[in-house]
Amino acid sequence: DSGVTQTPKHLITATGQRVTLRCSPRSGDLSVYWYQQSLDQGLQFLIQYYNGEERAKGNILERFSAQQFPDLHSELNLSSLELGDSALYFCASSVYGAPSIEQFFGPGTRLTVL
Amino acid sequence: TQLLEQSPQFLSIQEGENLTVYCNSSSVFSSLQWYRQEPGEGPVLLVTVVTGGEVKKLKRLTFQFGDARKDSSLHITAAQPGDTGLYLCAGNTGNQFYFGTGTSLTVIP
Known about the structure:
By secondary structure, chain A is mainly beta. Helix content of chain A is 0%, strand content 53%. By secondary structure, chain B is mainly β. Helices cover 0% and strands 56% of the residues of chain B. Chain B has no helices and 11 strands. In chain B, the strands form 2 sheets. In chain B, strands 2, 4, 5, 9, 10 and 11 form a 6-stranded mixed sheet that branches. Chain B has a 5-stranded antiparallel sheet with strand order 1-3-8-7-6, with no helix packed on it.
């Protein structure tokens, strides 16, 4: 158990819909990272927040957005969903805000778009 | 285009054999990590290397960072079924994080 929690574990929805994925980092960690993992693209970095502020941005689509709240939990919002958005979405956390990839991953949310 | 290319992509070996997984890039990384991921779970950090030429050992696993900090290797001695999983290298450059393409290892009892 990494100490990072993600909800829900599974999510099934339809094209065009909007969903919100939630992540709680390990106690004491200030950074939260979001990743998308699909079979054909591997693990892709989406975005990083540190102590409530956006710190780094990767291959995140404009239809996707994220935020980190004062209690440090984070949400990833996916809108206008397409079939290709079906994937595993992981959240990770770390203590540091500087570029670091010593991250601890949550169990993931499996999103299926029908 | 993937910044970090891993080889081989798939590897199936018998218990007790040795193996090496490679992680290559044309970019220089500040640090490089290796993770192992089991199906349906998140990656778990195995090791971090930060110095060119650095070698780290974790029981039967030996990790090496290339002198130029552009590549890395993971060597497993006497593989066991419990080593089965997806091995991912990952590196950061600037403010970006990149994971490798992954090596899926199956160790057959």
